Amino acid sequence: MKTGSHGLKILQESLRERLLNEETVVLACSSLRKQCREILRGSDLDYKQESYSSCKVKIVYWNLEGKADVIAARLQKRASKGERFMPLTLLQSQIELLQADDCEMIFKLSVVLSLEAYS
């Protein structure tokens, strides 16, 4: 298993237990790779790979879109204010890891627009 898979398996088991109890759950994690999201969907024992619409586990994916230099500037600004956030050194690897499948429920947010632009 690759790094992080063990944690995803724990989340998968927890989600499965809650699905069986018919509970509603909201989970936030990065899951940049499609394989990671498939592990989470695997919480649904009836799930068939890539049959998103019939899966009981609904993954809503928020993708921040923007140029790396704009995102880097924002990360630096947050770091200078002492805010805890992803280190700038991880930015390029996060961009490279991102696998966005248009068949999945993906909401794209531009990093150059203000939050008010989406309301």
Structure report:
With 119 residues, the protein is α+β, with helices and mostly antiparallel strands. The chain folds into 2 domains: 1-58, no CATH class; 64-119, no CATH class. It is built from 4 helices and 2 strands; from the N terminus they run H-H-E-H-H-E. Strands 1-2 form a two-stranded parallel ribbon. Helix 1 runs parallel beside helix 2. The longest helix is centred in the first third of the chain and has 16 residues, at 5-20. The radius of gyration is 16 Å and the shape is elongated. The model has no long low-confidence stretch (mean pLDDT 86).
Compact summary:
GO terms for molecular function: ATP binding; gluconokinase activity. This protein has about 120 residues and is an alpha+beta fold.
Question: Main traits of this protein?
Answer:
119 residues; ATP-binding; alpha+beta; 4 helices; single chain; gluconokinase; two-stranded parallel sheet; 10% strand
